[in-house]
Write the structure tokens for this entry.
Amino acid sequence: MIRSMTGYAKAAGVVCGGHAVLEIHSINKRNLEMHILMPHACLQYDLLLREWIRRAVTRGQLTVRLRVESREGALPESEQTETSLKRLKRHWERAAAALGYDPQTEVTLAFLLKQEALFAKEEIKEAELEALTKRALGALLKMKEREGAALARDLKGRIEGMKTTLNQIEKRAPRAACRFEARLKERLQGFTLPDQEERIAREVVLYADKADVTEEIVRLRSHFDQFLLSLKAKKTQVGRTLEFLAQEILRELTTLSSKASDTEMVQQAVEMKSELDKIREQVQNIE
């Protein structure tokens, strides 16, 4: 199943007693590019986070945001510190009273600041962050696969339409020489030239050889079949393959339209190139 490079996912969980939220936003990009925003206390896990993402995603521009909040909610840093100190004060005053000490003298501001600093050094555990990342990536991949399925249906319909047009060109191509011969004889009406019939036959043979598009038709049909097979492939990273095939299809269509002198065949080739432009635009968003 193919995947789109567009997607969004969000996962939340408890990390070290705090509420953590991980958001991943993905858009199309030729290669894999990541922008990771996280609290200073989590920076040591930047490389690990990139590696976890790289195992799941191969292309696209990803913006990853990690927020870690206290249970009371997301507060400014000064308010978080004040809230933390109040919570510590209540805890140590109860502990001092239970042990027979005077809370008013033992639980001082200096004492609380030391305790707050100790608690602030507590770091996010790697396993908790990895579990949170896996949940977010799982949701992201599901969305990318849904988008990819929609793209695959659209691309399949367009390729099938181009195959139908190619069949029409293939049926019309053999008659091009006959139509050329008829036009040539019509122009020469009223003229009598030495060896006229032989000359006409020679011109028709030269025209038929120059306007023969059999090779282009065979290669186009092969490219179409490979394109459709890639859409049904089990592997998810087919974007580069589809880009290559689209480029080769364009090359053959350009050659076909330049060799065909039949007006209707040229028009059909132009219509196929117009359809291919839409396909190439869609392919740019496939991982």
In short: The chain has three domains: 7-72+127-142, 77-120, 147-283.
